[in-house]
Design brief:
single chain, alpha+beta, six-stranded antiparallel β-sheet, 3 helices, 40% strand, globular
């Protein structure tokens, strides 16, 4: 696990996550991160449950995407999703505490491939694959 040293500037992951209003409003917590890896946690709330009384797939995708974003931004330059897909394996329910772990599979040029597994305890809920693209400095809108 990487942690911030008191008095030092936040890492690119910490800075990105601190500015991620969507993830924070859903109660997603950054548990740990390292070179090309990250783990986040989220509890399924009543607002995340669909008409079948299971977690809405959009929330699970967003949750996995947050882990992916944290992992691919460990290298420093601003990196975003170029594409992603998800396979839902088992339903999640209100009250479930989920953990998404992301791992880099490869990086080449400005691109990368990352896999994310969402689990409830030891049970796999979903598998996500994200393809990343590092932005050129002229594409980065952080200064605005």
């Amino acid at each position: 696990m990487t942690t911030q040293v008191p008095g030092s500037a936040p890492s690119p992951v910490e800075a990105m996550f601190a500015a991620d209003e969507a993830s924070r409003r859903l109660g997603i917590e950054l548990m740990q991160y390292g070179e090309g890896t990250a783990a986040v946690r989220m509890a399924v709330t009543p607002a995340m449950v669909n008409g079948h009384k299971i977690a809405h797939g959009g929330y699970l995708f967003l949750f996995a995407d947050t882990a992916f974003a944290c992992a691919c931004n460990t290298h420093g330059p601003v990196t975003v999703a170029a594409a992603a897909d998800i396979d839902f394996i088992a339903p999640a329910y209100e009250g479930d505490v989920l953990v998404a772990t992301a791992a880099e599979r490869t990086r080449f040029g400005r691109s990368g491939i990352y896999d994310v597994t969402i689990r409830r305890g030891d049970e796999v809920i979903a598998e996500f694959r994200g393809r990343s693209r590092t932005l050129r400095a002229t594409q980065n809108r952080e200064a605005q």
